[in-house]
Write a structure and sequence with these properties.
five-stranded mixed β-sheet, binds protoporphyrin IX containing FE, 12 strands, 11% strand, three-stranded antiparallel β-sheet, globular, alpha+beta
């Protein structure tokens, strides 16, 4: 890998502000101007943008033990995730991860699958009961609401019902706060009476009340295995309520926005690629006919899986991974980092690099049906190595079953010729939402 040219000895506040303005363009521009390893100076830190798969492999996998997640960003997340798996390091992280993993075991997936399909069918029934045969919806908003409903059901067997609006709003606020605080040059103290601080306090209060109430009730009856994630976390009755609360909160927030964004992007791509949509539908028809799909049907839907994987390549919800800090001098992919340096991996750029992906901006799900011709670490929508997404299989199951269920009964169509514009928030979202018309299919459609 070529030695990086150092763009400037000091790149400070200006870069931080550009990062906040248009992160996606900023990262792509840095790679095209300076190559695969770009050192920036952000405040007191030397921060490396690492775009090459070899360096990514080093940071995430082979030399992962030489990095921890950058503390200021983790402190932002810890405000509502507590000391959960997401923000912990070392022995505490290992213990938390061991505790959470059984909830995602392969044998648990069919049960979650049935719940996912049942809730998606209920959502479709409500849509079909609405007046008009092709309602205009903001698909991004709808998918956020649906995945929140699914998260509440699969995590703790709850129907949010009329609490859904308030909880959806609280999660959206926390996500926005996380984005702003983790990219802000300076964090304002919470006691300043800014409107955002007020919304944040309300959101933390609403989430805390919801999750604490549910967790306390369940821990009081640990024998009550309802087949949801919380039952597994609570197993044995010895669970520490604060730890369980932190994990549930984390899974609720980490799992719902990312999967919602993935569904939105996939539906936008399908609405714009009629031939792929028709082929996916034919595949769903062969695998499940008109009955409700099940988790094991997904094995017979390789094209649907490839469509989702291609959507994750083009529009990775985690467009940039959490920054890491080197805890020792370490060389990754030929780049020498000093102790204290930050490392930033940007799937948005690497997954669109023409060296690894032919016609990188084209939607070509077929590339995931053939043998992948790209280096393994050129495609990391779920991260990789020891801190790979703990919910990856669950997220793929959820996306597959929601899409299979929806596409049996509705056809989303774009209302604008221009593709949705990706915007870097906490996840990658369509700027201004994703307006689509949802045509209800006739039985023979
Ligand atoms: C399409 C959906 C999803 C995407 C794209 C996604 C992406 C990611 C990525 C990239 C990471 C690693 C971040 C890093 O290394 O900096 C991660 C970690 C994590 N994800 Fe996901 N995720 C998804 C769904 C889920 C779901 C459904 C859950 C839980 C129900 C979940 C829970 C977590 C947790 C707890 C971590 C932290 C793991 C650790 O630090 O050990 N994610 N996710």
């Amino acid at each position: 890998m070529a030695e990086a040219r150092v763009p400037s000895p000091f790149l400070g506040l200006g870069h931080l502000l550009r990062l906040r303005g248009d992160q996606l363009a900023f990262y792509a521009d840095m790679q095209s101007r300076h190559g695969d390893a770009v050192p920036l100076r952000l405040g007191p830190y030397r921060s490396w943008l690492l775009f090459h798969p070899d360096a990514i492999e080093g940071v995430l996998a082979t030399r992962a033990a030489a990095f921890i997640r950058f503390e200021p960003v983790m402190q932002v997340l810890a405000q509502w995730n507590g000391a959960s798996l997401l923000v912990s390091e070392g022995e505490r992280w290992r213990a938390r991860r061991r505790q959470v993993l059984p909830a995602f075991a392969q044998r648990r997936l069919p049960g979650y699958g049935d719940r996912i399909v049942a809730r998606t069918l209920a959502w479709l029934d409500a849509l079909e009961a609405a007046p008009g045969d092709a309602p205009l919806l903001d698909t991004d908003r709808e998918m956020a609401a649906l995945t929140l409903d699914l998260a509440a059901d699969t995590l703790f067997g709850e129907r949010l019902g009329d609490r859904a609006g308030a909880i959806g709003e609280a999660v959206a606020t926390l996500s926005e706060v996380a984005f702003r605080e983790s990219t802000a040059p300076l964090r304002l103290p919470d006691w300043l009476p800014t409107p955002l601080a007020r919304r944040k306090r309300r959101a933390v209060g609403a989430m805390d009340a919801l999750v604490r109430g549910i967790v306390t009730a369940r821990l009081a009856r640990p024998e009550d295995d309802r087949g949801d994630l919380l039952s597994i976390l609570a197993e044995g009755g010895a669970a520490d309520p604060v730890a369980v609360r932190d994990e549930v909160m984390t899974l609720l927030i980490a799992g719902h926005e990312t999967t919602g964004a993935l569904l939105s992007w996939t539906l936008d791509l399908l609405a714009r690629h009629g031939a792929v949509l028709a082929a996916v539908r034919a595949e769903i028809g062969l695998a499940a006919g008109s009955r409700a799909p099940r988790a094991d049907d997904l094995r017979a839907m390789p094209l649907l899986r490839a469509v989702i994987e291609e959507a994750l390549r083009l529009y990775p919800p985690a467009y940039a991974l959490f920054p890491r800090r080197a805890t020792e001098d370490v060389t990754v992919g030929g780049v020498a980092l000093r102790r204290g340096d930050l490392a930033v991996v940007v799937p948005w750029v690497t997954q669109r690099d023409p060296r690894w992906f032919d016609e990188p901006t084209a939607f070509r799900p077929g590339r995931f049906l053939a043998d992948s011709g790209w280096p393994r670490y050129a495609y990391v929508p779920f991260g990789a190595g020891p801190r790979v997404c703990v919910g990856a299989a669950f997220g793929m199951l959820e996306a597959g079953l929601v899409l299979a269920t929806l596409l049996q009964r509705v056809t989303p169509t774009s209302v604008s010729d221009a593709p949705a514009v990706p915007e870097a928030r906490f996840s990658l979202r369509p700027r201004g939402g994703l307006p689509q018309r949802w045509h209800i299919r006739s039985a023979d459609g």
